Amino acid sequence: MMTSPPLGLYIHIPFCRQRCDFCAFYLEIYRESRAEIFVQSLMQEIEQSGQHHVAANRPIQSVYFGGGTPYSPRLS
Length: 76
Description:
Helices cover 28% and strands 22% of the residues. By secondary structure, it is α/β, with parallel strands linked by helices.
């Protein structure tokens, strides 16, 4: 029996302080209330996907979090 290869997971965090000129990704300007809702929804989605996703029995090899404006003292 062949084993399935492990998964790589990418989670996009869409909150930024401002839109960068080079950015083509979906984003929202950071608002604490929206970020809280996003995190709650993300946790719920991860739980549900882990239980029902067709790849539920495949190991996750890597998790990459992307998006969002990197912290810079110039932006504070």
